[in-house]
Automatic annotation (TrEMBL):
UniProt superkingdom: Bacteria
Name of the featured protein: BadF-type ATPase
Record-annotated membrane-spanning stretches: none
Entry-linked PANTHER family: N-ACETYL-D-GLUCOSAMINE KINASE
InterPro entries: ATPase_NBD, Euk-type_GlcNAc_Kinase
Amino acid sequence: MKLIADSGSSKTEWCLVEGIYVIERAFTEGLNPFFQMRREISRSIRLQLPEVFFKKKVDQIYFYGAGCSSKEKKDVIKASLVTQFRAPAEVESDLLGAVRALFGNQPGIGCILGTGSNSCFYDGEKIVKNVAPLGYILGDEGSGAVLGKMFLSDCMKQIAPKDLCDMFYDVYKITPADIMENVYSKPFANRFLASFSFFLEKHLDHEYVYELVSRNFRNFFTRNIVHYDYKAYPIHFMGHVAYYYADILKEVASEFDVVVGQIEKSPMPGLVRYHTAHCRLD
C-alpha cells in the first residue's frame, strides 16, 4: 500500500494506492514547512485526514510539497509523516512532483502556475536547473498570489476600473482595512491573495483583467523560461492558474515562439502513474 501526497500552498491531495488503483482520496489544507512547525503539520494531518487513512497499513509514503527544497525542511515533513503513519517516507519538492507527473522519465521544462509559480529543466530523472521562484514578494510571476496582489493593489489605489472594483467589493464584502489586515497581520497571505485569482478568471472578457493576466504571464516567461534552453525541449504546465487561464497562457507563449504542451490542474494522476509503473510490468 502506497500513500502519495501532493501539497501546494493552499491544499494537500492524498491518495492511498493499492497496486495500480486509488482506493482512498482526500484533501486537507496545504502543508508548508516554511510557514508551519512540525507540531502544526502533524496536527493538521491527524485532524483533517479521514480515519481510514490511519487504519490501512501503509508500506511507503511519497510526499511532494511546496517549501520542501532543503533537507532541513524535508525532515520537518518527514518526521510528521513517519510519526503519524509508522511508515518510511520520501519527501521531495512540489516541483519534482510536477515534472514526474508531467514528463515521467522524459526530459523537458516543467512549470508550476498555481498559488505560487516555479520552473525547472528536468533531465528525465532529476531537476538539473531551477530559476529561483523567490516567493510572492520577490518573484512568483504569473502565480495566483501575484495576480491577486496586483489586482488588490490596483483596486485600493483606484487604478483598476471602477466597475470591476465595485463588483469585487460587492462579491467579497471586504474592505481595504480587511485586506491590509489579511496581508500584513495574518498568516498565509499568499493563500489569501491567490484566492482572488478565481474572481479574475470569471472576468477575462474585461480588458483590464486580460491585460493584467497577460502581463503576468509575459513576466513569467521573460524572468524564468528564457533562462532555459526553452526552444529545444517540450514545455508543460501544472497548476490551477495555468489550467484556467490556458488560452491566455498559450497566446503569450506564442510571442516567445513556444508551443505549450500539457496543461494539468493537478499532478496526482501523473504521480499515481509514475509510482505504479512497475506494477504494470509485474
